[in-house]
Amino acid sequence: MLTEVRHAARATIVSALAGAVLVATLAGCANKDDGVLPGQDTSHGTEVTQDMCTRLAAESISRASVVTGAGERVVVIGDSWASGFGLDDPGLSWPRYLDGEVRVSGFGGTGYARGSMATCGPISFPERVPDVIAQGADLVVLEGGINDSKSDIADVEKGFRATLDELKGYDVIVLSSPRVNSRAKAIRVVNKMMRRVSAEYGVTYINVFDLKLPMLADNTHLTVAGHRQFGEIVARRIAESRSETVPAHG
């Protein structure tokens, strides 16, 4: 059964980016104080269950089936913020507010390091890149770090470097991890690493840790208004970072 779940999780990204449609049924929400993974059963501690993998895979497909805008091909690789966890319509998650033809590969609980989500299969950011960019991309936006704040920083850096290695030759924007109060200290460590390595690779790093956004009751995921605000700010900061006259934030 576990092998089947892993194959299903891998197929999620491929079929989603090919335009498959599946309505996700979301269940559970993160603990207010601990900021646990989306859909995680807190009665099982930090265990990532097969049921959780299946539900997050369904959510990932549902979001990836929504392609918005027109123009340059933009691919967003992210976590539950990108997949729209907690929204009645995942298609309203923040990437819809970016300029261009936007496709989304979001999977709750994931990041640059494999971490606890390895149970669900090869779905960390570097493992997803080849399938995600198979249809081509003019710009790749990376949105992660919240979940990585619970992993060893050496593992996170290894995964972050692997992601950038997979994306050599592409125009890449790295977003810092946004602020989640329950993990703020650890997130700062992840952001410091991403800023340093982004500079080393010569890719644009944009700080979004400064933002205070409307959150759901779990204090970890965005409301519909929060997604709109985040998406519009990110779109503006990306535009500024690509301008010769206006410097990038952060």
From TrEMBL:
Which residues are listed as membrane-spanning? none
**What InterPro entries does the annotation carry?**
SGNH_hydro, SGNH_hydro_sf
PROSITE patterns reported in the protein's UniProt record: PROKAR_LIPOPROTEIN
Q: Where is the SGNH hydrolase-type esterase domain?
A: 76-228
Query: What Pfam families does the database record attribute to this sequence?
Result: Lipase_GDSL_2
UniProt name for this protein: SGNH hydrolase-type esterase domain-containing protein
Source organism (scientific name): Nocardioides luteus
